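dude i think i finally got it to work??
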Amino acid sequence: MNTLISPYFAEVTDPRVTGRCSHLLSDILLMGLCTYLTGGSDYQDMHLFGLERGSQLGDLLSLPNGIPSEDTFERVFKSINPDELESCLRSYGHSILSDLSEKQIVIDGKKQRGVSPTTRGNKGLYLLNVWVSENRFCIAQEKVDDKSNEITAIPQVLEDIDIEGSVVSIDAMGTQREIAELIVEKKGHYLLALKANQKSLFEDVECAFKVHSGLDTYETVDAGHGRIETRKCSILPANQYLLEENLQTWKNLETIIRIEATREIQGKVTTQIRYYISDEKETKAAYFNSIVRGHWSIENQLHWHLDITFKEDACRARAGYASQNLSVLRKMALHIISEQKDKLSIKKRLYKAALDTQYLRKLLKI
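look at this
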C-alpha cells in the first residue's frame, strides 16, 4: 500500500550493489521518516522503530529479511545521492504547492552544528533552505560548499524553483545585483535586506530616511512574556530619493523600506533599525511589514523546530551524505506533522504518533 510519500521515494536510486541487499530501500526510507514522525532522532531509533512497530505496519513495510540494523541505516543514508533525495523534497513540495504565485519564498542558511561543532563560517555542513512562509513548508535545500558561500549557492537554488509571481526574501548576504537581476528575469519579485556590505546603496537609503520619515508608515505593538515590542515600518519611492547610479545598478528598484524595532524588557529599552529594498511599487507600508515578518518565520517555524523538536544540532551523522539526507527527512516530517488539524502541539503529535499506530497512519495519509 502506498503512503503519501511513497511515490517520491521511488525516485531515489539504491546506492547498493544490485542483488546483494537484504533490505529494501523503500523500507529503509519509510522507517527513517517514521522515526522522525514518532520523536526519534538517530540510527538506533530507526532500528528500534522497526523492532517495535514494523509488524504493525506490515502492509507498508516488506521487511523480507527482518529489521535493518543500525549499521545498515547508516550505510544507506551516507551513500544515497543527496541530489535525488532533495529532488524528492522539491517534488513533494510542488505537488502540495502547485502554484507558488503570490507566495513568499524565504531563502536562508542554517549550519548543522552537531556535524561540524568546531568549524566556523560555512565550513562543515551549511544548508540553504527554501521556505514558503504562508504554507510553512521547506520546498528545497542546497548545500553551500566549504570553499564558497551563500552568494554562489543562492542562484543555484533560484534556478531550480519556479518563482514567477512570488516574492523572494533574502538576508543581507544575498543582497547582490546579480541575484536581484535573476529574480526579476524569472518573473519574481525581491525583498532584500540591506547592510553595509553594499556601502553605496546602504548610505544612500540611510540618508533618504534622514531627509524624509516616510510617505507611508505602519506600526504594530506586541506585548507578552514580560516584553513589549514596537515595530514601525516606513517606505519611500526609490526614484525620488536615491542617486541615479544606485537606481541604474539595482534592477527595477522601486521601494526602500525602514523597520524600526523597539523592545522593552524589564524597563530596559533597545532599538534596532533595519533597511530593505524591493522591486515592488507598493504604496502601503503594512504590506512590506508583513513581508519582513514573513521572512523571519523561517527562524521560528523551521530552524527552531529542526534544532529543538528534531534535535538536528545534536545529530552527529558526519559520514558521507548522511547529514544532508537526514535533513530532508526531518523537513518532510515537520511538514507532515504541522499539517494536522487537531489542537495538539507539534511535540504532542510526535508523542501521540509514538503511542498510536492509527495516528501514525493518519499522518502518512493511508
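The chain is about 45% helix and 20% strand.
im so relieved honestly
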